[in-house]
Write a structure and sequence with these properties.
By secondary structure, the protein is of the alpha+beta class. The protein has one domain. About 25% of the residues lie in helices and about 20% in strands. The protein contains 5 helices and 5 strands; from the N terminus they run E-E-H-E-E-E-H-H-H-H. It has a 5-stranded antiparallel β-sheet with strand order 2-1-5-4-3, sandwiched between helices. Strand 3 and strand 4 form a beta hairpin. The two termini are about 20 Å apart.
Length: about 140
């Protein structure tokens, strides 16, 4: 998956859950999201990348009562298909929803290996419960 994904959980702070295969995703993230501070929803193309931000589709909140945001930087070729926040929710969120449902309310952020295992179990099709956020946390099998 060619994305950088930063978010927070109920009790753990903002963290990169996907690094896009980069040794240090922060410079790419900072460049993509430059000028969007405070915006709750973003779809901004910067060169070949797309910065995408949207509030958690299930309105999950951190322990301070703030709705959790999902900041995603799409790298090519995935960036080519996303032109709006709605495109991102429809095309990208289903790839992340089940894994986030499992880890968001854990006390500590997930270890990289455990998150990779969750994400590698497969991508749901757009018409599954995962697109809506999969409240159960169950991952697709098979």
């Amino acid at each position: 998956m060619t994305i950088i994904w930063a978010t927070r959980g109920r009790s753990w702070g903002f963290k990169f859950l996907r690094d896009g295969g980069l040794r240090d995703p922060l410079p790419t993230y900072d460049l993509a999201f430059a000028g969007t501070e405070g915006d709750q929803a973003v779809c901004q193309r910067v060169g070949t990348h797309v910065a995408l931000r949207f509030p958690d589709p299930l309105e999950r909140q951190d322990q301070s009562g703030r709705i959790i945001p999902h900041d995603i930087v799409l790298l090519p070729p995935m960036a080519d298909d996303v032109h709006s926040v709605e495109d991102g929710r429809r095309l990208v969120w289903p790839l992340l929803a089940d894994a986030f449902a499992v880890v968001w309310d854990q006390q500590q952020p997930p270890a990289r290996a455990s998150l990779e295992a969750l994400l590698d179990r497969g991508s749901p099709s757009p018409d599954t419960d995962a697109q809506r956020g999969s409240e159960t946390g169950a991952l697709p099998t098979g």
